[in-house]
């Protein structure tokens, strides 16, 4: 159980770091606002990816608990 909690915690910190990095890139390279500004696009990508990683951090322990319940607990 603690391995799943540590993985979830690591993913939450990673999502927070992505959000901070994305915000910094977007604010630092706001001009010129066009599709050729690759650092601005990378910042937007980080901002989009951070909630996806956060959702994965929330779902990871839940999916592991579901698979644990489905296993046969008898001693062989």
3D structure, described in words:
- This protein is mainly α and 76 residues long.
- The chain has one domain.
- Helix 1 packs antiparallel against helix 2.
- The longest helix has 32 residues.
- The radius of gyration is 18 Å and the shape is elongated.
- The relative contact order is 0.17.
User: What's the gyration radius in Å?
Assistant: 18 Å
Mean pLDDT: 85
H/E element order: HH
Helix content: over 70%
Poorly predicted spans: none
Quick gist of this model?
The chain has 76 residues and is mostly helical.
Layout: helices, strands, pairs:
Layout: H1 2-28, H2 38-69
Task: List its salient traits.
single chain; 76 residues; elongated; mainly alpha; 78% helix
